[in-house]
Amino acid sequence: MIPLNVGLDAWMIQEGCYDNFCVGDQVDFVLEFFPRWMSHSRPEIHEVEHLGNCYYRLRARIVYRDDSLWIIEAGFRAFCFGQINPLIRRGNWIELEVYLGLDTKCGAYRDRIAELMAPYQVRSIRRDTAFRRMMQRQENQAISPGSRLVLVGAGGAEQDHPMPPAAEVEATDAWDDDGGRAHYVLQCDPIPGFG
Length: 195
Hints:
Blueprint: E1 4-9, H1 10-14, E2 26-29, E3 31-40, E4 47-52, E5 55-65, E6 69-73, E7 77-81, E8 93-102, H2 110-113, E9 118-127, H3 129-137, E10 148-152, E11 158-162, E12 167-169, E13 183-190
Antiparallel strand pairs: 1-13, 2-9, 3-8, 4-5, 5-6, 5-8, 6-7, 9-12, 9-13, 10-11
């Protein structure tokens, strides 16, 4: 299996869902996905295509569904809370584009997703300020490092802010990085022999 880039926001560490991460850590966690689009797919093999940052195009099989969450198998397992529609039936094969991150529910549904806990080795950590701002603005296009972002401040005055480039770091520092609002991309290797 290929390494996976998974997103992590600083608040998840601040809330106690996770400890800070370091390069080289071996950790167990659950993957959560957020679909951008999906469609039916013929039953075939799982497919994982990395699109950049934490975005993937997947061919997956739905292995679980209830009224509030569903689980896919795409060579790894991940869950999505909500967003239930007619395509989402156990056994269906779907093609979808997703944002992949760590479980944002802080284990609230562990009784239903406990089997998704899997071990990973943290290969690298990137603090991605531009990505965080892009997500806050809910844009679908990437803001390239070094570009400028114009924000409207109090009283309608425009404030020009430089966009710092993404930075490789040895560890997360959820309380201090980007004023406690950092977004991280963890590149993780699944540990062989699981599942």
